[in-house]
Design goal:
By secondary structure, the chain is an alpha+beta fold. It has a single domain, classed as Alpha-Beta Complex (Nucleoside Triphosphate Pyrophosphohydrolase), CATH 3.90.79. Helix content is 32%, strand content 31%. It has five helices and ten strands, in the order H-H-E-E-E-E-H-E-E-E-E-E-E-H-H. Strands 1, 4, 5, 6 and 9 form a five-stranded mixed β-sheet that branches. The protein has a three-stranded antiparallel β-sheet with strand order 3-2-10. Strands 7-8 form a two-stranded antiparallel sheet. Helix 4 packs antiparallel against helix 5.
Length: 186
């Protein structure tokens, strides 16, 4: 099933997801280069919520651009298999290799605002990330390694602590809280 059908079949858990699902589907239909960064207004991204086997901890990175603890993820960069994008980002950003999906479907979706910033010496204008999140499990005993060009920390946190560690208010209130709640409902 392609990503558009996956999103169409996804059952939103709250008002944010209902509205963001409509927005993502509209952009997928109307926008060009939506899977590439060439689209300077909005583009597809994939994120991962990676929990331990007991499902009481999540691994997060300290993101250099956002100066906050956050989930792992990245740009589609032309790929339409967003599950594979999310998995690759976890491997690159944390060095975790023994990860497995806890769901074969989308775990959550969201439209994320990205403020203008400098990356690799170039200014990147403010834009939207049309984000699909997947749920993975990893062994918390596996060695974590920082990816210095993107993050300056990789750690496991308790579910509540994962929310407290973030300095991004909207993520704390609307995203990480939602992900933990959905995890507890599985």
């Amino acid at each position: 099933m392609d990503i558009v059908d996956q999103i169409k079949n996804y059952k939103p858990c709250n008002e944010q997801e209902k509205r963001d699902k409509v927005g993502i589907l509209k952009c997928l239909k109307d926008e060009k280069n939506i899977f590439d960064r060439e689209n300077k207004i909005a583009h597809m991204t994939a994120s991962a919520w990676v929990v331990n086997k007991k499902k009481n901890k999540v691994v997060m990175i300290y993101h250099n651009i956002y100066n906050s603890w956050s989930w792992m993820g990245g740009h589609a960069d032309g790929k339409k298999d967003l599950f594979s994008v999310a998995k690759k980002e976890v491997e690159e950003e944390s060095s975790l290799r023994n990860i497995r999906p806890l769901l074969n479907d989308i775990f959550s979706l969201e439209i994320l605002t990205v403020d203008g910033h400098i990356k690799n010496g170039k200014y990147i204008s403010s834009h939207l990330h049309l984000n699909i999140t997947y749920l993975f499990e990893a062994d918390e005993e596996e060695t974590l390694v920082v990816k210095p060009d993107e993050n300056s920390g990789v750690e496991w946190f308790g579910l509540n602590e994962s929310i407290e560690k973030s300095t991004e208010i909207w993520f704390k209130e609307r995203i990480y809280t939602k992900l933990n709640k959905k995890l507890n409902e599985l």
